[in-house]
Amino acid sequence: MIKEKTEHAEKKRKAPMKKAAKREKTKFTNIKLFGKWDSNVEVLDLGMKNYINVEPRLIPRSAGVYRNRFHKSKMHVAERLALHLMVSGHMGKKHKITSGKFGGGYSAALEIVEKALDLIEKKENKNPIEVLVRAIENSALREEIMTYQMGSMVAREAVVTAPQRRVDKTLRFFAQAAYRMAFNKKKRTHEALADEIYAAYKGSTDSYAIKEKDRVEREAGGSR
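Given the sequence above, the corresponding structure tokens read:
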């Protein structure tokens, strides 16, 4: 009896392992963002194509799944914009002033983004997701300045901006511009955000992001 069990175990060990069938992710291409807009938009800037995610989502909320440094590119671009509205980052030394009022629930920031996209659609009569993507492409930095110290001297050198940073800094500029245009004014935050994205889409110098891009690239050109 023991011998039979040993032989059975030996045969089982030597038998070829069956590979489990790989499950493919189901892709729903007909889902509309907020139930309104088609997210199937082509990113024309090849440098940022892998860093602007416009996959179909109903509600752009990943709930902290993408925590690693470069995994944020898997988030929908509307979600990344909403997160920048909550913490818009430094503007010189004025971090507290520029983003203090933005803190709060994610749903409130997402509502601002949705209302801004609504206004853009009414103004341009076009898919606002496409307008947002084109605005990012138009106002994304291509090069900036790196400062380093050599002994007692501080040197500045022009460097090419990484594609992930290009997207992040542009979204930060959008959030900061929305706050500056709405702070202590009658204009609401979603209206200011819509105006900023629309101006960047048109390539207008009324856009804070376009102005910052021109300023930084001009300084980088002088440091080559």
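Residues 163-182 form the longest helix (20 residues). Try to locate this feature in the token string yourself.
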